[in-house]
């Protein structure tokens, strides 16, 4: 990995939304590689994937401080004016003015639907999930 690529990935970690990074890493990167490998550069799917790559980079700007020493690179710090993902107030558990623990019950119940079905199917098959 080049020094510039390392700095860019580190900056993306600061400014990109988690779900955008997941889509990029799990879908866009792999699909882009397959398209190029299969010689489909002039295809509509390449155009679509390329536009998503360009859109993902809209807010990626800032500074990354690096230290290069004996063939290794260390990130010393990063900053970005466009980073809106981190807020000390929102990440602190000291103030819970906008959050109530009961807000999570609907989300947990929805997520539990598939987990209950999975657990019931495993139990019906005689598999004890507590031993997994």
UniProtKB/TrEMBL annotation:
According to its record, what are the GO cellular component terms?
cytoplasm
The UniProt keywords, alphabetically, are:
Amino-acid biosynthesis, Arginine biosynthesis, ATP-binding, Ligase, Nucleotide-binding
Question: Which pathway does UniProt place it in?
Answer: Amino-acid biosynthesis; L-arginine biosynthesis; L-arginine from L-ornithine and carbamoyl phosphate: step 2/3
For this protein, what is the EC number? 6.3.4.5
* UniProt keyword annotation of Lipoprotein present: no
Q: Where is the Arginosuccinate synthase C-terminal domain?
A: 2-118
Q: Which InterPro entries match?
A: Arginosuc_syn_C, Arginosuc_synth, AS_cat/multimer_dom_body
Tell me, which GO biological process terms does this entry list?
A: argininosuccinate metabolic process; L-arginine biosynthetic process; urea cycle
* Record's protein name: argininosuccinate synthase
């Amino acid at each position: 990995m080049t020094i510039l690529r390392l700095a860019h990935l580190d900056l993306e970690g600061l400014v990109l939304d988690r779900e955008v990074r997941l889509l990029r890493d799990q879908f866009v990167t792999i699909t882009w590689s397959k398209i190029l490998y299969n010689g489909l550069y002039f295809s509509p799917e390449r155009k679509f994937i390329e536009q998503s790559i360009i859109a993902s980079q809209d807010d990626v700007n800032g500074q990354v401080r690096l230290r290069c020493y004996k063939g290794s690179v260390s990130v010393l710090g990063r900053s970005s004016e466009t980073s809106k993902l981190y807020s000390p107030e929102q990440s602190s558990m000291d103030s819970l003015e906008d959050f109530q623990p009961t807000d999570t019950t609907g989300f947990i119940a929805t997520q539990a639907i598939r987990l209950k079905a999975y657990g019931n199917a495993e139990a019906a098959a005689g598999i004890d999930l507590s031993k997994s």
